[in-house]
Amino acid sequence: MSNQGEVASSIKNGIGNITFSHPQSNSLPEAILRKLAEEITSAGNNSEAKVIVLQSAGEKAFCAGASFDELIAIENLEQGKKFFSGFAMVINAMRTAPKFVIARVQGKAVGGGVGIACAADYTFAVESASVKLSELAVGIGPFVVGPAVERKVGTAAFSQLTINATEWQTAEWAKEKNMYADIYKSVSEMDEAIDILANKLAQSNPEAMLLLKKVMWQGTEHWDSLLLERAEMSGKLVLSDFTKNAIQKFKTGAR
After folding, report:
1. Within a domain: residue 243?
2. 63: in domain
3. pLDDT at 199 over 50
4. Which of 127, 120, 77, 78 has its CA nearest to residue 99?
5. CA separation for the pair 95, 37 (Å, rounded)
6. Is 222 exposed, middle or buried (0-12, 13-18, 19+ CB in 10 A)?
7. Residue 169 in domain
8. Are 187 and 59 in contact (CB under 8 A)?
């Protein structure tokens, strides 16, 4: 794994596997976000891949969300919007991929990681995979990932995550709110279940799955523009002294 992180992809037996990694708890700098969106789109357009499995590397955190180092370095609105539009690109790539996207959550998910878990069509997790939307605690808000999270868990649960921004919610809570479809005691048990479902989908009718995906995501067509508008909201907030100070303090504490 490089210091800047990386995205790797492969296709085997009809299953497209996409893995993102970063040494800082699989956080997401702009370059990784854009590469991740590209790989999801590429797998969606590749006829050899019948289903997509999205995962992160390692055995600890699934995703620590936005890269704090890059957030602090943002100097103007254009840079801010460009950074947060990376999350918009990933969510929209997952939404518009003509195949089901399965997410594998092997550890805690924060911010953008929660957005990825919710934007997937089917999400597996382990019992230790707690979730948190910490954006308000650093002076911004989960504007870009918000539509994906709210669509999956409902307005009340989304509001709970957003307002109580420093509190972890358990994997059991996430399952009760439909963020996770299934949770498992161990990674090996989860991987076995993912393998079973992915192989079943790889043998299913591609046209039927495409039509089902369109039906399931009906009403989200405006997200192409909505999520970019939300990116600008976050990009503006991250420029404030309040937010820069909050991020700096948060960097030294628990994420």
Report:
1. no
2. yes
3. yes
4. 120
5. 11
6. exposed
7. yes
8. yes
Find where tokens 């955190």 sit.
61
Max distance between CA atoms of the chain, in angstroms, equals 53
Reduced 3-state DSSP string for the chain:
CCCCCEEEEEEECCEEEEEEECCCCCCECHHHHHHHHHHHHHHHHCCCCCEEEEEECCCCCCECCECHHHHHHCCCHHHHHHHHHHHHHHHHHHHHCCCCEEEEECCCEECHHHHHHHHCCEEEEECCCCEECCHHHHCCCCCCCHHHHHHHHCHHHHHHHHHCCCCCECHHHHHHCCCCCEEECCHHHHHHHHHHHHHHHHCCCHHHHHHHHHHHCCCCCCHHHHHHHHHHHHHHHCCCHHHHHHHHHHHHCCC
Mean pLDDT across 92-111: 98
What's the domain count of the chain? 1
Yes or no: say if 155 and 241 are a contact pair by the CB < 8 Å rule: no
Task: Give the CATH number for residue 33.
Answer: 3.90.226.10
Tell me, yes or no, whether 227 lies in a domain: no
Question: Are 43 and 9 a contacting pair, CB within 8 Å?
Answer: yes
pLDDT at residue 72, as a whole number = 86
> Average pLDDT, stretch 194-211?
98
**What residues make up the domain containing 103?**
6-202
Residue 255 has pLDDT above 50, yes or no: no
